[in-house]
Amino acid sequence: MKEAIAAAAPLPEDINARIARQVRARRSGLGLTLESLAARCRVSRSMLSLIERGESSPTAVVLEKIATGLGLPLASLFADSAAPIDPVSRSAGRVRWRDPQSGYVRRNISPANFPSPLQIVEVELPAGARVAYENAEREIGIHQQIWVRQGSLELTVGRVTYRLDEDDCLAMQLNQPTVFRNRTRRSVRYLVVLASERAPAARR
After folding, report:
1. What is the pLDDT at residue 13?
2. How far apart are CA 164 and CA 138, in angstroms?
3. Residue 92 CA to chain centroid, in angstroms?
4. Burial class for 6, CB neighbours closer than 10 Å (0-12, 13-18, 19+)
5. Per-residue confidence at 198, pLDDT binned at 50, 70, 90?
6. pLDDT tens digits for 139-168?
7. Which of 4, 24, 71, 125 is deepest in the core (most CB within 10 A)?
8. What's the pLDDT at 124?
9. Does 7 have pLDDT greater than 50?
10. What does pTM read for this prediction?
11. How many CB atoms lie within 10 A of CB 76?
């Protein structure tokens, strides 16, 4: 009888630790203090400090404000900056994140750290859930398309509300308040495809 010897699989990284590393690294790269980032994103210094230490489970709304202050799409805060550059993204390596406020679940689909202007994110919004983002102006323009794969989604961009049914796709730019809402009795699943414009030249 053969004995099967299986190597212990590495434990998945805590998602809050990953977010903490991304926020710290980006803030440091921009030369921002906690106080200056707090002023830019309108999140308290104490909350930013807790997030950077991995001691808080921030909501999607708070993370969106931080991403805006850092000039990033929200998806970048969930990226694994320690992963090797690889053009292939494997299902087993993707980490899910659940918003503690709305219960919505998201995971990055695109390969981590691969140099591409595109990012793909999968989202599941529970029945009756609602998520509202301020989406303030960023230094870098971010375009986004929402492709509904299951269910129906109500999406308000600025003052215009769209109802997206299965297989519908909406193109938009992240420069206005947006509200995602599921008014149905079952979860809605959709893909988010983001593309960032080239960063503007540094001001002197």
Report:
1. 56
2. 26
3. 19
4. exposed
5. low
6. 678 899 999 999 999 999 999 999 999 999
7. 125
8. 98
9. no
10. 0.83
11. 17
Measure the CA–CA gap between 199 and 108, rounded to whole angstroms. Answer: 22
CA distance linking residue 19 with residue 95, whole number of Å: 12
Report residue 139 as tokens.
């230094």
Residues in the chain: 204
Contact 130, 180 (CB under 8 A): yes
pLDDT tens-digit readout, 19-35: 999 999 999 999 999 99
Q: Encoding tokens for residue 109?
A: 């689909």
Cα distance between residue 21 and residue 29, in whole Å: 12
